[in-house]
Amino acid sequence: MEPVLAQFSSRRGKAIRAYEQYVLGHLGDGHQSEFYRVEDQRFLGSEGFSDSIEQNAREKVEYIYDIPMGEIMTGVETCFGIPGGVIGGASRNRMGAWGRGIVSYPGRKLGRYPLSEMASSFGRDPASLCQGIARVEKRIREDDRFAHKIKDLEEDLTERRRR
Asked: Which tens digits make up the pLDDT trace of 52-103?
């Protein structure tokens, strides 16, 4: 299966539907300048090709942190006051969904966890996590206080891993 679809589900039909939901959910976002910054561009080609180009060009490579999901969940619990039992529980209430979105945001950004892996760990559909991440990203853009809390969470999660 294509790598993009595999991020949404291991089953092709389900992955296609989840991808469609993701795209439709972001149509109203408009132009987002953060996707066009030069330092965020990636090379097109196989993984080996991209690696060799980056190595030869000696470009700054974004660091991927080895942060267990449980540690991210604990950080969200501490920083945002959402109990881990609510985040990881079977309930489908709004607080749990919001907490899973917050946990998934640094999971994707810092740990590069695949959406399908995070969804599986929560017993949820990748599309619902994707929507949760989109809500977190929107809130970051609209609410400076929230954006600052997310930044604090990210710093707490990565500080012990810097050398």
From this structure: 655 555 444 467 888 999 999 999 999 999 998 889 887 778 999 999 999 9
Over range 128-145, report the average pLDDT.
Answer: 93
Q: Tell the CATH superfamily of the 3-159 domain.
A: DnaA protein, C-terminal DNA-binding domain (1.10.1750.10)
Q: Is the pLDDT of residue 41 over 90?
A: no
CB-CB contact of 60 with 47 (8 Å): no
Instruction: Sketch the domain layout of the chain as residue ranges.
Output: 3-159
